[in-house]
Amino acid sequence: MADTRKLEFLKTILPGRILAESKREDEELVQVELTTPEHLDGFMSTIHRLVMVTRNKSSGEEKTSNLMVKVMKGDDSFRESCLSPVQFRNEIFIYTKVVPCFTQLLESSRCSVKGDKWCPRVVFGVAGKVPEYSDCSETILVMENIALEGFKAGPRNDLDEEHLVLMARNIAQFHACTYAMKITKDPRLEELVKGIIPFDFVSDGNVLNSYALFFKMGLDRLFEYFDKNPKLLDSERFKNDLSTLRSRYGEAPIHLMQKLLHQDEFSVILHGDYNRNNVLFKYENDKPVDIRMFDFQENRYGTPAIDLIFFMCMSMPTGLRERFWYPLLEQYHDSLMSTLQDILKCDANDPRLKPYSYDNFKKHLQHYGMYGGMIAVHFLPWMICPEEECAQLAFHFANDMYSPEMKHWLNIAGGDAVDIRLTEVFRHLSVQGYLDIVHED
């Protein structure tokens, strides 16, 4: 009955509200089609495809709008356990406040970067009570379906250099807007940062239990693998880093994650979940030439390592990771600096840019880069495992994430391929000094 009520709202009431929000009062609805493709389902959201055919009341000309409708999954208990209301409200804030502000900044400075090319255009967003839809507090986000423009998902997990460079240079442009506003002391930045509801792992002594559970189970699996294969700890540094990580944070790695949310001069408004599964690519002759990002649910104000080292740990296979790690960081930093110079209309020697130099940037990442490894230890099994195992993970995540079945599938998903990959990721982070933070007080 509840699903019928929701679908009825999406099909009969929402289209009219979209027209009103878009100031399209001179159009009338001719046809509405609502479908729910299973392959678009998210971990915490349901994605519907909405096709609206409208007719201009004066000319009779018809127009077709192809849209995606994103709504929250689950009951109140599930949503609260994941802080879904906070995440979805923040996502709407990014689309409706942050991106428009950054876009205006770029346009007013005559910057060559176009903010309206970062993500799909949003045509409607609401957060709060929607009585016609449900009795709960809801968020509903409607955006254009850019699949019709040729954008599509890239490889499931592992990316080549061309995909990685597109991702790095794209997010650098987004981050550059925060730094430009800091440098010019733009008062709008403070309002934007205040508008993001804090999404902490630990707050006032209270732990975000769902995240604490998954980080703990991910590390437990990794430590168990090392216990069975101690020779993999093949250097004193690696052995010491993992031993300290286990002794200090093994029981509650959520506290390490909170430590990595510390804000400093490098803090930016983040995407927060910038990974292969939250971007779409456009191809020409089988080569990626453009990118769009979406799903800003976990956005924060914090270290750029959250956006950068996350996808680097997830999507750089062994060999490429070791060879292309620093060239990719250079690509990010080059895009960051060139965008800043374009916004500020200055050259590379401008003293205002010195705090964000490549050397300072690398030092910053050395302190915060462990964030990417901790996300990988939880999320890599989902991305590498066979689709049947991923379906089991998704099922138990939605039904009872604390169940023995959930723990079972997290322990075995992806098998040796996951365990070997995580070993290689953590070894690489240790070599780069990214695990030094576990030794700090």
Brief sketch in words of this structure:
Residues 141-342 form the CHK kinase-like domain. With 441 residues, the protein is an alpha+beta fold.
* Strand neighbour order, sheet with most strands: 1-2-3-5-4
**CATH class value of the domain at 146-439:** Alpha Beta
CATH topology of the domain at 146-439: Aminoglycoside 3'-phosphotransferase, Chain: A, domain 2
Mean pLDDT: 94
Give the termini distance in whole angstroms.
Answer: 54 Å
- Judged by helices, strands and strand pairing, the structural class is alpha+beta
How many strands appear in the DSSP assignment? 12
**Main β sheet profile:** 5 strands, antiparallel
What is the succession of H and E elements? HEEEHHEEEHHEEHHHEEEEHHHHHHH
Radius of gyration using CA atoms only: 22 Å
Shape: globular
Number of DSSP helical runs: 15
Mind telling me which CATH architecture of the domain at 146-439 this is? Alpha-Beta Complex
Organism: Culex quinquefasciatus
Pfam family, one: EcKL
Domain CHK kinase-like: 141-342
Protein name: CHK kinase-like domain-containing protein
Overview of the structural elements:
- With 441 residues, the chain is α+β, with helices and mostly antiparallel strands.
- The protein has a domain at 146-439: Alpha-Beta Complex (Aminoglycoside 3'-phosphotransferase, Chain: A, domain 2).
- It is 51% helix and 16% strand.
- It contains 15 helices and 12 strands.
- The strands form 4 sheets. It has a 5-stranded antiparallel β-sheet with strand order 1-2-3-5-4. It has a 3-stranded antiparallel β-sheet with strand order 6-10-11, with helices on one face.
- Strand 4 (122-129) and strand 5 (137-144) form a beta hairpin.
- Helix 6 crosses helix 12 and helix 12 (370-384) runs antiparallel to helix 15 (415-431).
- The chain is globular, with a radius of gyration of 22 Å.
- Pfam families: EcKL.
- Residues 141-342 form the CHK kinase-like domain.
- This is CHK kinase-like domain-containing protein.
